[in-house]
Amino acid sequence: MDYDPVRAEDPELGEILTKELNRQRDSLQMIASENHVSQTVLKAQGSVMANKYAEGLPGTRWYGGCEYADELEELAIDRAKELWGAEHVNIQPHSGTQANEAVYLAALDPGDKILALDQNQGAHSSHGHQAYSAGQFYEVEQYGIDVDTGHVDYEGLREHAEAFEPDLIISGYSMHPHIVDWERVQDIAEDVDAYHLADIAHINGLVAGGVHPNPVGIADFVTGSTHKTIRAGRGGIIMCDEEHASDVDSAVSPGSQGGPHMHCIAGKAAGFKEALSPEFEEYAQQVVDNAQAFSDRLQEQGISVFSGGTEVHMVLVDLEETHPDLSGLDAEEIFEDANIVLNAQRVPGESNPDTWNPQGIRFGTPALTTRGFDEEDLRAVADLVVRVLDAPDDESVRESVREEVQVLCDENPLYEDLL
Ligand code: DSN
């Protein structure tokens, strides 16, 4: 597959696609929520399934001509069930946020109470941020992280839940470098008669690969996106027991979405097949090994890593003490100029009041691991990161880092036969 037809028919668009392909090839993608899907997944997402309307569910559609859409959706669902062991799967959410919104619609009434992690300590915005519908339709309170250990403050969560009496407790996070104790959250939810939603958008590939415990069968609802560590087609997923199946299905569509994106479901099916292979377990383990090698090397050189390390795919660097004059957003920009792409991120417990310009930067290893980077490569990347942090104003340092990034990229090529 290549972009030639696009370049021939629409040079303006073709050029943009080519530039993005080359950007991904020639820089280090370290945004923890990103990955590089296979060409099979790319091809499936770009397939004729993009043309098909298939509102409804397999066998009960609102449109004719859905024979193959039905086959496709059933294939994706069966593969998801095998990967995570779910009784029921809805594979139609357009994103992880849409998946969460659908669970709220299925499980709650307007005005009900949600207890979610503090938005400044690692929760996803769809867990009740005021700018999202959940923040406006439900009463949301927030529990916290134990900033000394970096783990969820489970005792604090219990006390808060007993006082607040929520209808739903959300676990699973966008910034959390530790294993989540699903049973402990479930026990608390049961004791206060609340539902438990585990959002595994970031870690579902680690769960499928056996390097993080699985909340399916423990939490009432499990949601996620499908293009992060699991490396499948773009979108979301909901998993639950049969007792919630019809509420979830109708909350997704027609409750909150129109026609499913069948081409994305094709990409999900393709990626799930890849994730069922034994190689995927090796990939998941390598993602974590790489994150730990990166984190260790940074700390050996005096860089402060939140909670002293990671058990998953992400590493949060705390700039507050070592680089008080460098904001997270400035660091994000400087690193991008060095061809290392990451994002600014609030550090749990940071004192800086400007929530939009935090003093942390979040790194992730899923994409680099996909292109073949190992621990030695990640230690080399850590050395480059330290060089940039040691001289944030020095353009010549960034130029030399760019050259070394290019060497690493050339040694671990990406999408070699895409034009
Ligand atoms: N949660 C966002 C992130 O962590 O980058 C993506 O949805």
Give keywords.
binds D-serine; alpha/beta; three-stranded antiparallel β-sheet; seven-stranded mixed β-sheet; 419 residues; 16 helices
Description:
With 419 residues, this protein is of the alpha/beta class. 44% of the residues lie in helices and 13% in strands. The protein is built from 16 helices and 14 strands. The protein has a seven-stranded mixed beta sheet with strand order 4-10-9-8-7-5-6, with helices on both faces. Helix 8 links the parallel strand 7 (168-171) and strand 8. The longest helix is centred in the C-terminal third of the chain and has 23 residues, at 278-300. It is globular. D-serine is lined by residues 33, 96, 124, 174.
Q: Structural class of the secondary structure composition? A: alpha/beta
Shape descriptor reads: globular
Which segments are poorly predicted (pLDDT under 50) over 5 or more consecutive residues? none
Question: What is the H/E order?
Answer: HHEHEEHEHEHEHEHEHEEHHHEHEEEHHH
Concise description?
The protein has 419 residues and is of the alpha/beta class. The protein has helices at 4-9, 11-26, 39-45, 67-84, 96-107, 133-137, 154-164, 182-191, 204-208, 245-252, 262-275, 278-300, 328-337, 366-370, 375-390, 395-411, and strands at residues 28-29, 56-57, 60-61, 88-90, 113-117, 139-143, 168-171, 195-199, 221-225, 236-240, 314-318, 340-341, 343-345, 360-364.
